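Reopening this one. Same input as before:
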Amino acid sequence: MVEIKNLGKCYGRTVKALTDINLSIGQGEIIGLFGENGAGKTTLMKCILGLLGHSGEILLDGEPITRKNIARLSFGTCEFSFFPEMSANEHAEFYAEHFPKFRKERFRGLTEFFEYPVYRAIKNLSTGQKSQIEVILALCQGADYIFLDEPFVGHDIFNREDFYKVLLGILEPTETIVLSTHLIEEVEGFIDRAVMLRKGTIIGDVRVVDIEESGDKLVDYVKKLYGYQADRVSRSLEMITGAKKN
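Same output, byte for byte:
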């Protein structure tokens, strides 16, 4: 289990990115991490992975996350972390050398399924293909906790739908996914739990089945939680058109 206790993160002296975050992530969960742009989703993931300094405590099965256990966590980021000059197959060889639990068969299966050009330098591929290999490597590292930050950059809807189906089919019971995305309606049937961030704090943490049992949809629940105003667009258009007339 990943335990986050009283986590805080500031950029500079005044900008609070995260405030008093308390969260537990158990093995075998698929968690959707939702929030507006700037809510702190990426910052939270980077703090867990030790990529950013922070206050508070983050534990993995009761122990601090260090070089001894960091391989149990993997990260697929929309900022991309691959080596652009290398091909997918060269990445697989590199990962196999550094991660003893690297899943070679899973890598082969995923690249074949998505018809990935495994011999070409990644820098020469499309944005969608770059995000694909980022996600594939995160899934194949052999980690127990897999963090995916906006993994669908450049993906068409067919690739996204295939990704959900394949992911549900390959995950083992002990593997955990934490997925940051704005595509709430698409992932509703895929995730077990939804964690909502707003302005650096957690404003909601709920199991999707509980929302469904209440007769609500996840996207509607999220809108209510965030106080979304359905007439926002029409009011803005009235202001804009009215200003033009005047």
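So the earlier flakiness isn't reproducible anymore. For the record, Residues 127-140 form the longest helix (14 residues).
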